[in-house]
Q: What sequence folds into this?
């Protein structure tokens, strides 16, 4: 017989925060009550008192293998430390992207035995003749499809042509699977970087100057137009400017099913951090002016940004140092899967900008809805017992050495003290992390398959 577990704390439901008792059986939430249930010898009780019990956080934007030395195991530990119970790993792996069913299945097979949290996987398509790979990837379990209008690498991270984007969105529109995009204007960026390099303008701020806001808005507008005329869903990742959010919102008003995310770094860092720290603070899109950050917060509070992610890409100091003299030589990205929720809580809830319910929507509920993770994302009867326990009174200071990365990654947030700390993480009714200790074996985490309608994927287009 499976042991019944009861948790008490400040439970964050979809509507309110309530001092309540949660009953957990067979990995599911079977009871929510403001009255203490009867405890017997078979019941295990966890009293979290004044701590929040949030639904387990979901990070929809993670790169375990952009730096191939990182992998699932270390990332899953970082996830648990930050209260992330499910993450969705991006397809731009080194050396080969996940753009065929065979590669997807091989990656999926790595999950079992390599994670303490649950993992879903993005798929992508090849640069040439890639649309034909979509049905096989959906059948293999892809949760969503990631494509790009900017070319980082012609094979691993290619720019997809407008024609293939149109065909892909047409193919995906009846599947329930969401296409998402890295949205930057490739032609403008390539030309601007060439001009700056030729002029020897390789200082840190040049990274932002060669990726002005217009490279984001022009790419997003074209994608929204394609989504409008194909009738497809659309998701825009790592939005860095309020102008982009306003553009997306205008298309929503026209009936386009477009959503967007921003990342925690665009809410707590700005161009002055890039100027001060150089490669340590380099990411794509780049950090922007303080007034841009303020504009993002306004849209986030107003509910115009659907959720917040980490865009987790860990790089060591030795990797980042390659761009010390030339910012364009440094790899882009920073570690974040264990920081995204605590940073957003500190900057949002602790500072009075967001309510706990809004925070829960941004970190769990809206993410689950966009990926069709029907058993995750909120504390409701019958759903997975995924919880993030957060102590609002606890503080901790971010350090490079304290990050749970295999690659000894560095962060531009080192030295920053946060209000609010995850003290325990539950996945499907099991504590996987508590009191700074990993409690579950790496065989515990599981694969979360995509919920697309396979028949629609095969027949559409």
A:
């Amino acid at each position: 017989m499976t042991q019944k577990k009861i948790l008490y704390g400040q439970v964050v439901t979809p509507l309110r925060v309530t001092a309540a008792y949660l009953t957990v059986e067979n990995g599911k939430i079977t009871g929510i009550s403001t009255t203490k249930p009867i405890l017997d010898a078979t019941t295990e009780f966890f009293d979290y008192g004044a701590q929040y019990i949030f639904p387990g956080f979901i990070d929809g934007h993670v790169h375990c293998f952009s730096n191939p030395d990182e992998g699932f195991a270390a990332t899953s530990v970082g996830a648990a430390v930050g209260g992330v119970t499910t993450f969705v790993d991006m397809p731009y792996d080194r050396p080969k992207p996940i753009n065929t069913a065979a590669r997807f299945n091989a990656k999926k097979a790595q999950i079992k035995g390599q994670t303490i949290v649950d993992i879903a996987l993005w798929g992508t398509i090849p640069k040439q003749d890639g649309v034909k790979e979509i049905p096989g990837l959906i059948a293999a379990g892809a949760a969503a499809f990631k494509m790009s209008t900017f070319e980082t690498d012609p094979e691993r991270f290619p720019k997809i042509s407008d024609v293939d984007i149109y065909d892909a969105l047409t193919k995906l529109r009846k599947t329930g699977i969401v296409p998402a995009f890295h949205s930057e204007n490739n032609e403008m960026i390539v030309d601007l970087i060439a001009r700056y390099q030729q002029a020897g303008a390789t200082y840190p701020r040049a990274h932002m100057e060669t990726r002005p806001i217009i490279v984001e808005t022009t790419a997003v507008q074209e994608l929204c137009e394609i989504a409008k005329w194909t009738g497809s869903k659309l998701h825009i990742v790592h939005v860095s400017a309020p102008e982009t959010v306003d553009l997306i919102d205008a298309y929503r008003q026209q009936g386009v099913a477009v959503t967007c995310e921003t990342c925690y770094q665009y809410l707590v860092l700005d161009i002055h951090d890039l100027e001060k720290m150089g490669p340590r603070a380099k990411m794509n899109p780049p950090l922007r002016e303080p007034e841009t950050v303020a504009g993002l917060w306004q849209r986030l509070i107003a509910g115009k940004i659907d959720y917040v992610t980490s865009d987790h890409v860990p790089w060591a100091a030795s990797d980042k140092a390659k761009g010390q003299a030339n910012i364009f030589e440094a790899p882009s990205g920073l570690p974040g899967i264990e920081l995204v929720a605590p940073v957003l809580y500190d900057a949002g809830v602790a500072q009075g900008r967001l309510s706990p319910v809004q925070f829960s929507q941004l970190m769990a509920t809206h993410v689950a809805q966009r990926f069709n993770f029907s058993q995750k994302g909120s504390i409701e009867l019958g759903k997975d017992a995924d919880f993030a326990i957060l102590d609002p009174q606890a503080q901790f200071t971010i350090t490079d050495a304290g990050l749970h990365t295999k690659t000894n990654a560095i962060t531009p947030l080192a030295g920053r003290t946060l209000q609010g700390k995850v003290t325990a993480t539950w996945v499907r009714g099991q504590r996987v992390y508590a009191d700074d200790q990993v409690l579950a074996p790496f065989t515990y985490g599981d694969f979360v398959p995509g919920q697309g309608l396979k028949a629609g994927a095969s027949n559409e287009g």
Observations:
- Residues 453-461 have pLDDT under 50 and may be disordered.
- The domain at 56-373 is CATH 3.20.20.140 (TIM Barrel).
